[in-house]
Amino acid sequence: MKYQAPDKKGFYGQFGGQFVPETLMKAVKELAKVYEESKEDEEFQTELRNYLTQYVGRETPLYFAKQLTAYAGGAKIYLKREDLNHTGAHKINNTMGQIMLAKKMGKKKVVAETGAGQHGVATATVAALFNMECTIFMGAKDVERQSLNVFRMELLGAKVVSVTAGSQTLKDAVNEALRYWVANVEDTHYVMGSVLGPHPFPEIVRDYQSVIGTEARRQYVEIAGKLPEALVACVGGGSNAMGLFYPFVEAEEVSMYGVEAAGLGLDTPYHAASITKGEVGVLHGAMMNILQDEAGQIMEAFSISAGLDYPGLGPEHCYLHAMKRAEYVTITDDEAVAAFQLLCQTEGIIPALESAHAIAYAVKLAHTLPAEQGIIVCLSGRGDKDVDQIKTRLEEERKQNEKNA
Amino acid sequence: MKKTLEQQLTEIQRKKKVLLIPYIMAGDGGIEKLEPTLHFLAKQGVSAIEIGIPFSDPVADGPVIQKAGIRALKEKVTLEKIIQELQKSTVAVPLIIMSYFNPIYHFGLEKFITEIKKTPVKGLIIPDLPYEHQNYIQPLLQNSDIALVPLVSLTSSKNRMAEISKKAEGFIYAVTVNGITGTRTKYSEEVDAHIRLLKSIASVPVLAGFGVATIEHVEKFAQDCDGVIIGSKIVQMLHEKQNEALQVFLTEAVAIATTKKAE
Q: ipTM surpassing 0.90, yes or no?
């Protein structure tokens, strides 16, 4: 299969596009142009590679999780250790590239949204490195839930703006960041945190995150002498999954699974399953699958994991889903919390709650596949940020159990 | 043949009067307020009325219109209810619907156009549907009397202005700030030259919008283009039930003559 997306207008099949106010059209067009140029710019590419090696700490290992595999009782599970990157998640692969692009465009300031704070921290980090003024928008509820990450961003010199509009979570932070960008478009670059937003953002973020899949593919072939049978990654906006999937898209024998957050359950309104339960619409500049009500108003997404708490899924995922190249499945809060503990106990790795969704599905999947097959799971981030939340939850569960006993 | 919206605006222009289009948020204060508000504004002699459709994620709007949208959504106002109201409307001035793309896309683009043909709506503004994506809606409007009103911003190049102008219907909405809707006290210096340039290119009336809130603003823009759109100021005054003050303001504003040097 030959795969080429997006098209010239920024579409992945019917998904994607540039649904933005006129004021931003110049900026997204300029970005697309500069991005294309940067691909041919060897100096730029060498500098980016050097930063990824020496600053971010790439490449990251592809680790055979022997105990987890034994637990699942089936296919071999390999973890792509994005949690070992500087700042503890895959997000920095993208912020490094985008902020270098911003510099190339002569921008002085960067702005970004953040949910859990991982992308905010990764943006603030690289902004500090390149001496750029940095503003991060974060929903007021998330500011409260993730106070440590707020402080981290401030330490790194960023200004964190708490967003009290709308549902006060990630989607409103994106709205506010877009508004800020419209007002400061001449000297500011918007560092989009996932494979979302108007073209060329989904393409740029995918390409910068593809380092995950490119490395993993080579590493797996070195170990196994063949391609893996399956890939598993969690999807909120979908950047770590797109990064893992993209270098495998044309290898049709490799199954790809994106794991959406089912929150409290798909039969409740409390989930973030944009593909499974959403409908096609336009949000934040792109046509994609979105959780919306019968009047086309965007609904709030829900997940224990703030990083998956987004009511849409990147256009390229919607495309892969529509063409049946990737499958999208769901994992509930409870399953994710169980997988979180499982990985701690079997492998001594504390995963991010986002990544725990991928672990949970990978264990299920491995169980159905023979031992000679292999699965690569993207361990997109480390779980230090979630330890407090898990502690509170487990304590409450224990109290509840004692009461019932 | 020119569509009604452009014809009517051109008619007012001929009298050397400024074109004045107030913006309201449909359903702010309840859907039953929509029709009386339209009549109230029409009585003040406005040129047309822009009706905002509430949306959960209005990225081009400032706090005043955001809050009005949230109030309308809390009243359970939907695009469907608004259309039903407008189908009963007897207001005589042309109406223009301003909606983000998602509510109308979700409603069904064809169905939306079919339904608004049965209302006094003569124009459509979709702030997140740029020139590149007009093909989603333009073909559906070809045999209708509904104009697709384009926006031009301070970041639009001269070539782009020309391209947009070529296909423009009704009027061109000139966004006067790099920013979101909402009242502000002053405009950047580049605005005047930019609007004059646009005016020299455009073959339809040019109206300035975003931040227009005072008589001085109206006078300022009456010098370089054909009129103004007033949003946040009107939305706020209606919300605060300052109808008398609004009446005074509008009466004064519609009397302003255009003094464009170009004509």
A: yes
